[in-house]
What we know:
Radius of gyration: 18 Å
Number of strands: 14
Helix content: 25-40%
Number of domains: 1
Structural class: alpha/beta
Strand content: 25-35%
Order of helices and strands: EEEHEEHEEEHHEHEHEHHEEEHH
Strand order of the largest sheet: 4-1-9-10-11-12-13-14
CATH class: Alpha Beta
CATH superfamily: Ribokinase
Distance between the termini: 24 Å
CATH architecture: 3-Layer(aba) Sandwich
Amino acid sequence: MPDIVVIGGANIDIKAKVNEPNRLGTSNPGVVSMTAGGVGRNIAHNLARLGADVALISIVGRDVHGDAVLDQTRKAGVDVSRILRTSISTGSYVAYLDHDGELVTALNDMRCMEELTPQLVEAHAAMLDKARLVVADCNLPQETLNFVAELAGAKLVVEPVSVPKSRKLIEALKVAPLFLASPNFDQIDSLAGTRDIEAAFAYMHGKGLRNVVIHAGPEGAFVSDGTDIDHVEAQPPAQIADVTGAGDAAVAGLVHGLLQGEPLAIAAARGQRLAGQVIAGAASTLE
């Protein structure tokens, strides 16, 4: 049985990066790349590259993109035997990046994730029970995330994914207290109605979240276990190639550190180091 089970999105990433400062309303020369992506998948990929024993529960289409996602994820060392196939197209994430590798805008189409029902996850209940940590992203349907919270809340790490999808975290907390979540500043502002660190932590702990790691981009991360608040410095590379996957890497490093028995702040610092490594390259994950 794997030490870590990740339940979440697996999709194809299509990234377009302009060569020069972006000009709106016209065609811009640049580079387009395509690779396996998805928040849950990226986290699992990075964990496997770090040497963790990790399985991914997800869903992809019976199409060439689904084949590519499975192949790349398997080659990274992830157990993909629990990834399901559907007649709906494999999820996709389309990102437009400026010449510095910063995100201008993005669109994701994750309709196939609606087919990842609680019943399908329940088939793997024994594996979830034996795992040391479970990671879920908010690409999951609400009822599926709620089911995972009920089944594994005491060891569940939730990655909110985006501002709109982060509301699922609050609903899951109504089902059971959770071990940890990793919102960024925009998501915590949406959830707690404030960017004040102490107030935001107090709100999330009050909802039943045991540990909170707020990812703050170039400011690093703010960490609370309900007793102490710590700040962890960012560790950016000398030059950023592509910011895609930074948050996923930070979560993977954090989870890997927790698996090693590290205190929360030390594990979060490991996550910041890993994020710095990933954004130095164009792949969005450790290669």
